[in-house]
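From the shared-data thread, chain only:
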Amino acid sequence: MPDHLPRNGLRIATYNIQKCVGMDMRRRPERILQVLERLGAQVAVLQEADKRLPPRPAALPPFLVEETGWQAADLGGAGSLGWHGNAVLYRGAVELTDKGHITLPGLEPRGAVWVRLDTPLGPLRVIGAHLGLTGRARREQMRALARAAKADDAAVVLAGDFNEWSRAPVLEHIAPSLTFLPRKASFPALRPLGALDRIAHCHRLKAVAHGVHGARPAHVASDHLPVWADFQAV
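Structure, as tokens:
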């Protein structure tokens, strides 16, 4: 379990849930929700939240999400939990006020989502993304996300699976208005080597703690471990 959330703070997590299929090759959505509960986050940005084939039904059933105290931003429709597999859950003293999609360039079918939330930190725009497998695509996609981060006057958090193995600040240079939290290995879950899952934020927020959640059953619930960060307003 991560450290206790500071007073007047907000914990945000990003988690590639691999369609709820664990390292044991079993699809167990209730196990993913158990990991999310132990994270203690108020906002969870998910990747691979829907099954692969059209009409891309939710891998994490909405009724289970609601039963465990979460609300899901309605980003997909037609039975999906998200859009291009990207979903945002929220709970507690957090309310959804707006939402939308961000079309990302590249040959692969990729997209990102955004939500505007009322939070204990004030208005917050959270962007969730799952970037492409090629370096060129990731750079182009990060440029699109950097533009989206300037879309309104709310504070901004960008989170997701960036698929970037390089230890050089490749993506950071493209979005200089955002502060990327230091890399922490989150993939593969059984023996993390790559810091693929990242969180970045604007200058109006301060990250007071962040880490990777590897406690059971996170080590087998997905091929990624969730990454979390605690924020306070500056």
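The chain has a mean pLDDT of 94.
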